[in-house]
Structures are given as C-alpha cells and as structure tokens.
C-alpha cells in the first residue's frame, strides 16, 4: 500500500509569553497509508488537536517534516 501522509520527527512549540515555550507536540513520527484511519488517544491537553492542525497546515510545524503523497508540504 502507498503512504499518504508521513510525519518525520514533527514538533510544535508555542511561545506563551515571558520567554516561555510550551511543547504541545514533541517528536512525532508516523505513516498513514491510503485507506487507513489513524486514531489519536490521550489525556486532555496532550496535543491531539494541535497535531491534527499541524498535519492540516493550520499551524506550521516547529520542527520536522510532513509529506503528503511523498511531497513535503510544510516548507
Ligand atoms: N494556539 C495555542 N497557543 C498556545 N498554546 C496552545 C495553543 N493551542 C494549544 N495549546 C496548548 O497545547 C497543549 C495541547 O493542546 P491540544 O488542544 O492540542 O490538546 P488536546 O489533546 O487536543 O486536548 P483535548 O483532549 O482537551 O481536546 C495544551 O497545553 C494547550 O494549552
Ligand atoms: Mg483537542
């Protein structure tokens, strides 16, 4: 099967004032193949929605690469 989405060491940090950084998503690597569904489970605030927003391009990733159909989409 073909890979549809690849995350390669993806992180998202938010600057939350006074020089502080909140690490919302920390070093996620995964592949989603065509026809596959991925569920993300975890406690409130662990970064599920932020991860989805980074994959959709709503937030730029702070680190790492996102590929869609083999092409990098977060440049
Ligand atoms: N735009 C933002 N600016 C600053 N911090 C944010 C922002 N969005 C999310 N966060 C913080 O990032 C962390 C992850 O939040 P996120 O909303 O991704 O969690 P979640 O797993 O979706 O939680 P829930 O299960 O409650 O929906 C939290 O500490 C949250 O406060
Ligand atoms: Mg959420």
What top-tier CATH class fits best?
Alpha Beta
Strand proportion, as a percent range, falls in over 45%
Supply the number of helical segments: 1
Structural class: mainly beta
Bound ligands, named by name, code or SMILES? adenosine-5'-triphosphate, magnesium ion
The description of the largest β-sheet is:
4 strands, antiparallel
Q: State the shape.
A: globular
Question: Cα-atom Rg, whole angstroms?
Answer: 13 Å
User: What is the level-2 CATH architecture name?
Assistant: 3-Layer(aba) Sandwich
CATH structural fold name: Rossmann fold
Fraction of residues in helices?
10-25%
**N- to C-terminal distance:** 26 Å
Per-chain topology:
Layout: E1 3-15, E2 21-33, H1 48-56, E3 63-68, E4 71-72
Antiparallel strand pairs: 1-2, 1-3, 3-4
Task: Give a quick summary of the entry.
The chain has 75 residues and is mainly beta.
Describe this structure in words.
With 75 residues, this protein is mainly beta. It has a single domain, classed as P-loop containing nucleotide triphosphate hydrolases (Rossmann fold, 3-Layer(aba) Sandwich). 12% of the residues lie in helices and 45% in strands. The chain contains one helix and four strands, in the order E-E-H-E-E. Strands 2-1-3-4 form a four-stranded antiparallel beta sheet, with helices on one face. The longest helix has 9 residues. The radius of gyration is 13 Å and the shape is globular. The chain starts with a strand and ends with a strand. The mean pLDDT is 96. The site of adenosine-5'-triphosphate (ATP) has 12 residues, from strand 2 and helix 1.
């Amino acid at each position: 099967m073909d890979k549809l989405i690849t995350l390669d060491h993806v992180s998202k940090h938010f600057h939350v004032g006074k020089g502080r950084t909140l690490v919302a998503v920390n070093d996620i690597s995964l592949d989603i193949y065509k026809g596959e569904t991925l569920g993300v489970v975890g406690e409130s605030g662990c970064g599920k929605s932020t991860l989805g927003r980074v994959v959709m391009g709503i937030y730029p990733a702070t680190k790492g690469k996102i590929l869609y159909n083999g092409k990098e989409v977060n440049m």
